[in-house]
TrEMBL record:
The lineage of its organism: Bacteria, Bacillati, Actinomycetota, Actinomycetes, Propionibacteriales. Its EC number is 3.6.1.27. It comes from the Bacteria. This is Undecaprenyl-diphosphatase. PANTHER family: UNDECAPRENYL-DIPHOSPHATASE. NCBIfam families: PRK00281.2-1, undec_PP_bacA. It is found in: Cell membrane. The gene is uppP. It comes from Propionibacterium ruminifibrarum.
């Protein structure tokens, strides 16, 4: 992979990781257009590893929140009166809500990286989940705040989050934000919950991929060359910087806007992919 492709893919990852438009779907599409075998072990490892940059951006951005929640959770473990702190319950919610996606990721890893990485699947998921997002975005009674988060809410959001790795195109953030809206949370709270729920899952997935798929970065695809560590590191760093600003923009945007623009974009993108596939411009 040349550095121009690495920078482009890092930008795509950074912009889309936390927007409800599917980062994996976008990466697969761009990788395919650039001529890569999206089911090859090298590009699959590259796609997973560069997400670490976006994860680090989220950790840096929400560092104070993360420290506060962890501190409250540990205090609650040893002091009964500290369990009244909403952050203690939120800590448990994040832990419990992260379990479903971890189970799905481990049990269906090979299937996810194989048949489900098809552009047909991505287009269908983009289109169909847009309906769910539209339904969630139409709710009027969005009044619940972070202090109202309970274990049941976290589990529901966690179950929605587990759909994302199964069907690239749904979007992890799209699934979790929709779940938050369905549970009656304000758009800004639902978006923050999406970040909080995503950080443990993405950190675990990033570490797992970095360990298990590291050797694949230097493995050549059939008839091609290996991705290489230099472009992988460059793409990861680019995704970190871009993701940080993407997070800041999204939180500001949702404070006064609906998700209609994202939904329309998803539908248009799905239609474009389907047309390209039908015309033979790209293969699934």
């Amino acid at each position: 992979m040349n550095l121009l492709h690495a920078i482009l893919l890092g930008i795509v990852e950074g912009i889309t990781e936390f927007l409800p438009v599917s980062s994996t779907g976008h990466l697969r599409i761009v990788e395919k257009l650039l001529g890569y075998d999206i089911q090859g072990v090298g590009i699959t490892a590259f796609t997973a590893i560069i997400q670490v940059g976006a994860i680090l951006a989220a950790i840096i951005y929400f560092w104070k929140d993360i420290v506060r929640i962890i501190a409250a959770w540990f205090r609650g473990l040893t002091h009964k009166e500290s369990r009244e702190d909403p952050d203690y319950t939120l800590g448990w919610g994040i832990i419990i809500g992260s379990i479903p996606v971890a189970v799905v990721g481990l049990l269906f890893k090979d299937f996810i990286e194989g048949a489900l990485s098809s552009l047909w699947v991505i287009a269908a998921a983009l289109l169909l989940w847009s309906i769910a997002m539209a339904a969630a975005d139409r709710r009027k009674d969005l009044t619940r705040e972070m202090k109202d988060v309970g274990i049941k809410d976290a589990l529901v959001i966690g179950l929605f989050q587990a759909l994302a790795p199964l069907f690239p195109g749904i979007s992890r953030s799209g699934a979790t934000i929709s779940a938050g809206l369905f549970r009656g949370y304000t758009r800004e709270t639902a978006t923050r919950l999406s970040f909080y729920m995503g950080i443990p899952a993405l950190v675990a997935a990033g570490i797992y991929e970095a360990i298990t798929a590291a050797s694949d970065i230097t493995t050549a695809s059939p008839g091609g060359t290996a991705i290489g560590w230099t472009p992988t590191i460059v793409a990861t760093l680019v995704s970190l910087v871009v993701a940080y600003f993407s997070i800041a923009w999204l939180l500001k945007f949702v404070s006064s806007n609906k998700f209609t623009g994202f939904i329309v974009y998803r539908v248009i993108l799905a239609a474009v992919i389907i047309v390209l596939l039908m015309l033979g411009v790209v293969t699934a």
